[in-house]
Design a protein that fits this description.
single chain; mainly alpha; about 425 residues; about 70% helix
Length: about 425
């Protein structure tokens, strides 16, 4: 077991991850497979009645100069393209997201769906690659394929790909943020992280705790860049519809009330334990969520300056997934970053390679087991166990072997 804590937690980063020619060879092999699998998935779906249709229609309307927050246009779009499932009266996401999905709206629905699933698979692959600290002196480079296999067996990833959800994009945003922060590019990473607000139920807790971390590190410029970027995103929405924020809060509040206490979060676990009794669910869930938030705030304020970005984000992610009142199983795809960081750390601390390589696959199998329990019980609160497992694992690593300061530059040697 290594005794140099700094070596374990702060590996040297000397090359960019995209300087590895073998990785591009792997991508050249994977991308056609991604395209073929995306086509097969979409061809088997009723893609007009899917989550992806929501994103595509928003981009489609915006590409024609129309506002996806106009109820009449939104409902007419469903009718025009043969969508019988109409879960929302307007686009149920922040309006700036429609700018991101606008390029997809330029394609026909099926083609756009195939492109999006292919991109989502690419986002997952790149996220793993960006989250691993590669080093020629240890066997981390051999973890890439086990991590990739585990990711594509992970239930949240499978649901994300099938439904055409946004989650793989958010995963990539977080992984890129982590990569930039690992390279001391704090304000650039903060700008990238601002796009998490496009899914506010996840973005708000992640960004809120990340701001506290940046504040402890005295990265004032990064906080300013984050605020500026968030303001810019909001301004894009106001250019399209000055009242978009109120409309979003209205539709968001309706969705929250429909699913409160049934999600894989602390609130869902409280709802399951309280048999969905409203007062009990609110009181128990609120107490647990508040306690967890206070604990993480104390940890950040006391140890934030001594904790590198990988471990800190890997702690913030499961906490955010547990305390948010609105979450679906596919949102837990963000845990892929945490599993990657943990596997990276385990191999550096001298754990047997075979054991570490099995870790992401075992974690994915647990996610499928929890799905089975959810089917039996009719309640998906069980999937919150995934976030709890990661949270406990990260917390134990911090308490067992606290990292050294992150003041000095972190560098990354990438050899595949």
């Amino acid at each position: 077991m290594p005794t140099n804590t700094k070596r374990v937690f702060l590996p040297k980063l000397t090359k960019t991850p995209f300087s590895s020619i073998p990785f591009f060879i792997i991508l050249a092999v994977l991308i056609p497979l991604f395209g073929i699998s995306a086509w097969i998935i979409v061809s088997a779906l009723d893609y007009q009645n899917s989550d992806f249709f929501t994103f595509w229609l928003a981009g489609r309307l915006l590409s024609h100069g129309q506002n996806p927050y106009e109820t009449g246009l939104w409902l007419e779009g469903h009718r025009q393209f043969g969508a019988d499932w109409v879960p929302n009266s307007i686009f149920p996401y922040p309006l700036p997201l429609a700018l991101i999905t606008l390029p997809l709206g330029l394609f026909q629905l099926k083609t756009a769906y195939v492109i999006w699933i292919c991109l989502s698979q690419l986002f997952i692959t790149l996220s793993i690659y960006l989250s691993v600290s590669w080093d020629s002196k240890v066997r981390i480079k051999h973890l890439f394929l086990p991590l990739l296999l585990g990711a594509f067996l992970f239930r949240p990833a499978l649901v994300t790909l099938r439904n055409g959800q946004l989650s793989a994009f958010l995963l990539f945003i977080l992984a890129l943020t982590l990569y930039l922060w690992n390279h001391q590019k704090w304000w650039q990473g903060a700008v990238v992280a601002s796009f998490l607000i496009l899914k506010p139920t996840i973005g708000l807790p992640v960004l809120g705790l990340s701001v506290l971390y940046l504040l402890i590190l005295k990265k004032v410029r990064a906080i300013g860049a984050l605020v500026f970027s968030l303001s810019l995103l909001a301004a894009f929405g106001w250019l399209i519809d000055p009242g978009w924020l109120n409309k979003f809060l209205t539709v968001g509040g309706g969705k929250f009330s429909e699913t409160f206490g049934y999600n894989p979060t602390i609130w869902g676990m409280a709802g399951y334990a309280c048999q969905q009794a409203s007062l009990c669910t609110t009181a128990a869930g609120g107490a647990l969520a508040l306690g967890l938030v206070v604990a993480i705030i104390i940890l950040i304020t006391t140890r934030g300056r001594l904790t590198p970005p990988g471990l800190m984000l890997s702690l913030i992610i499961p906490v955010s997934l547990l305390v948010t009142p609105y979450l679906w199983a596919y949102d837990q795809i963000l845990l892929i970053i945490c599993v990657t960081v943990l596997a990276d750390l385990f191999i550096r601390k001298g754990y047997p390679y075979l054991l570490v390589a099995c870790f992401p696959i075992l974690f994915s199998l647990i996610s499928l087991l929890l799905l089975y329990l959810a089917v039996i019980t009719g309640h998906d609160a069980w999937s919150a166990v995934l976030s709890l497992i990661v949270l406990v694992a990260i917390w134990m690593q911090l308490l067992k072997d606290p990292p050294d300061s992150v003041k000095e530059p972190i560098s990354l040697e990438l050899i595949l």
